[in-house]
Write a structure and sequence with these properties.
Distance between the termini of chain A: 51 Å
Oligomer: heterodimer
Shape of chain A: globular
CATH architecture of chain B: Orthogonal Bundle
Order of helices and strands of chain A: EHHEEHEEEEHE
Low-confidence stretches of chain A: none
Number of domains of chain B: 1
Strand content of chain B: 5-15%
Number of strands of chain B: 8
Structural class of chain B: mainly alpha
Shape of chain B: globular
CATH architecture of one domain in chain A: 2-Layer Sandwich
Radius of gyration of chain A: 16 Å
Strand order of the largest sheet of chain A: 1-2-3-6-5-4
Low-confidence stretches of chain B: 1-8
Largest interface: A-B, 45 and 46 residues
Number of helices of chain B: 17
Largest sheet of chain B: 3 strands, antiparallel
CATH superfamily of one domain in chain A: NADH:ubiquinone oxidoreductase Nqo5 subunit
Structural class of chain A: alpha/beta
Chain lengths: ~170, ~400
């Protein structure tokens, strides 16, 4: 893979990286779930439809992407869809990271919890819930983790001022 | 928003209310290495449940990053893991450089490797001293802090700061190392292997230390992967993965070193793995010293890298660049990158999202201690209360990077 190669768009990636194990695994499982893809800065990003993210992760786990490295969110306020949840998954076998992405609408954002696939998602999802207000369905203990339990608002949202509310 | 799941955390389990007791360990407890609060449910001396309550040190660094220019974030990264500052600087710089697509001169790359390893030694020395102290072996703490002091003096000479170095910058390094820097590092690593022998002599054969660690805090390789454990604790559980070797960054492919593995998965294995890791770090530093190339320490990118002080005072163009960078920052192409490195405590990752302006749209730090803490319950469940202290010491957590 050349360092400078950039592929943007679902068709470009599925054709240009047809041999990539992650792309192969997703296409073999359910091509419908892959809504967008890009290969940039030698990193592969796959956008998965929100309802199938856990199934996609389970398939990738079976395909050798065995380690959930990181899980976080980005608030694209005021654009729509507003929230993006990013999953960085590491493969010890292929020695590379891939990024899964889920886009969520502004009104009561929620997505399936990844804890069923990787128990390590527990703290990460609590952090995202705490700081972004995104709910994770099926999480065993979805409580605030950084902020006090009675805190109001979600500090990492873009409409939350840096200095806080005074 | 109120507690939505409503899970009680301070109550003993149903049906065991008369038998079990809830004990708070921390947030002010010397063995928790900071402000970690553990809610322990115990049955006599046996741990039934461990519930880490974190967030006492939350400073909102990720939010602060969104309000700063890219170059202003470097000092913030020092303060996250204050025991391994140069690795933080390195990871952040590599992530932003990936977005910018600028090349770093060879000398800067080699110096970065040298410093990252020195920083790893610093981190491991603190781990060894405090871990042994938690177990009751007070002497080692004084020995390791003697060596750590030397590392801090070297860093002070290098960056003007003992702990918050901010020495690795976007596009290179802050300044040329002082003239005696290489000699001092050479002098330090020349004697350091003997010092490791010294620690080993004090601890490895010590029957109390052995019995406090052997077979305590077992974590299987599968659990380590499932629970997100990285770094020495993961390798002590038999998972053979090191970012330096497997996804080389910053020129690590030019260095020869072994990655120590153990399959025992207990606190003792983690102790042994880290001791070998220190010896390997010494080898890497020696290779970096021997092969240190000549040349610049900053990338040739005047719009991104601050000019030398001397040039800034004598050349109009350099002054303009300096003024522009300091007042307006520099624009970074839009996109998102994730950079992982192997820091002292485990795998550190920086996720930087840019929208094309001079301030990052989002910076997220993945720090190893945060994930490793989730494995605490697996390691402590069904074991003695006193073992919790040994386990916390052996996974080497830093609260600054957990709470951020």
């Amino acid at each position: 893979m050349s360092e400078s190669k950039t592929l943007i768009g679902r068709t470009e990636v599925t054709e240009g990286l047809a041999e990539h194990p992650a792309v192969k695994a997703i296409l073999a499982w359910n091509p419908e779930a892959l809504t967008d893809a890009r290969f940039e800065f030698s990193e592969l990003t796959l956008t998965i439809s929100a309802e199938s993210i856990c199934a996609a992760a389970a398939n990738l786990q079976a395909a050798g992407y065995n380690f959930l490295d990181d899980l976080t969110a980005v608030d694209w306020y005021p654009s729509s869809p507003r929230f993006q949840v990013s999953y960085h998954i590491l493969s010890h076998r292929y020695k590379e990271h891939i990024r899964l992405r889920v886009l969520l609408a502004e009104a009561s954002p929620a997505v399936e919890s990844m804890t069923a696939v990787w128990p390590s998602a527990n703290f990460y999802e609590r952090e995202v819930f705490d700081l972004f207000g995104i709910r994770f369905e099926g999480h065993p203990n979805l409580r605030r983790i950084m902020m006090p339990d009675d805190w109001e608002g979600h500090p990492l949202r873009k409409d939350y001022p840096v200095e806080g509310y005074r | 928003m109120s507690n939505p799941a409503g899970v009680p955390v301070l109550e003993p389990a149903e049906g065991a209310k008369d038998q079990h007791m809830v004990l708070n360990m921390g947030p002010q407890h010397p063995a928790t290495h900071g402000v970690l609060r553990l809610v322990l449910e115990i049955d006599g001396e046996i741990v039934v449940r461990v519930y880490p309550e974190i967030g006492y040190l939350h400073t909102g660094i990720e939010k602060t990053c969104e309000a700063k220019f890219y170059q202003q974030i470097v000092p913030l990264t020092d303060r996250i893991n204050y025991l391994d500052p140069l690795s933080n600087n390195l990871c952040y710089a590599l992530a932003v450089e990936k977005l910018l697509g600028i090349g770093i001169p060879e000398k800067a790359t080699w110096l970065r490797v040298l410093l990252a390893e020195l920083s790893r030694l610093n981190s491991h020395l603190i781990w060894l001293g405090t871990h042994a102290m938690d177990i009751g072996a007070l002497t080692v703490f004084l020995y390791t802090f003697r060596e750590r002091e030397e590392i801090l003096r070297i860093l002070e000479g290098l960056a003007g700061q003992r702990m918050m170095t901010s020495y690795i910058r976007i596009g290179g390094l802050a300044m040329e190392p002082p003239l005696d820097f290489f000699d001092r590092v050479q002098g330090f690593i020349h004697t350091f292997p003997e010092k490791i022998d010294e620690y080993s002599n004090l601890l490895t054969g010590n029957p109390i230390f052995r019995s406090r660690l052997k077979g305590v805090g077992y974590l299987s390789g599968a659990d380590a992967v499932a629970l997100g454990v990285t770094g020495p604790p993961m390798r002590a559980s038999g998972v053979d993965f090191d970012v330096r070797r497997d996804i080389p960054y910053c020129g690590y492919e030019n260095f020869q070193f072994q990655v120590p593995i153990s399959t025992d998965g207990d606190c003792w294995a983690r102790y042994e793995v880290r001791l070998v890791e220190m010896r390997e770090s010494v080898k890497i530093i020696q290779q970096a010293l021997d092969g240190m190339p000549e040349g610049a320490i900053k990338a040739d990118a005047p719009k991104i890298v601050l000019p030398d002080r001397e040039k800034m005072k004598t050349q109009m163009e350099a002054l303009i660049h300096h003024f522009k960078i300091v007042t307006e920052g520099f624009e970074v192409p839009a996109g998102e990158v994730y950079q992982a490195i192997e820091a002292g405590h485990g795998q550190t990752g920086y996720y930087v999202v840019s929208d094309g302006t001079a301030k990052p749209y989002r910076v997220h730090m993945r720090y190893p201690s945060f994930a490793t803490l989730q494995a605490l319950e697996t390691m402590c469940k069904g074991k003695m209360l006193a073992d919790v202290v040994a386990v916390i010491g052996s996974i080497d957590i830093v609260l600054g990077e957990i709470d951020r």
